[in-house]
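Following up on my earlier message about zinc ion. Here are the inputs again, as you asked, copied directly from the submission form:
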Amino acid sequence: MVKKQITKICDVCGTQFVTNRPHQVSCSYECAKIRCRRRQAENRRKNKIENQNRKERQTHTKQLVDDAVEARKLGMSYGKYKEMQYREEMR
Ligand SMILES: [Zn+2]
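Thanks, got it. Here's what our run produced:
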């Protein structure tokens, strides 16, 4: 069986190369390494953003609990408390 040769453009350096592997995207091992490193850096960035989002969510949840505690202290329901807060803000 003759393997099909595919002409491709390297994802990293833009050089044209021939391969018989359809999934190959870089011309050489060196370029593959660079590509891998780039992807790792990108993933790190993504993870960082995700962690930040997670932190924000946690802060939000904490705020919710604080409000609920505050509402109980004032002897009103959480809904009432929120309504009051809302009115205060509108003033
Ligand atoms: Zn290359």
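One observation from looking it over: Helices lie at 29-73, 78-90. Hope that helps, and feel free to reply on this thread.
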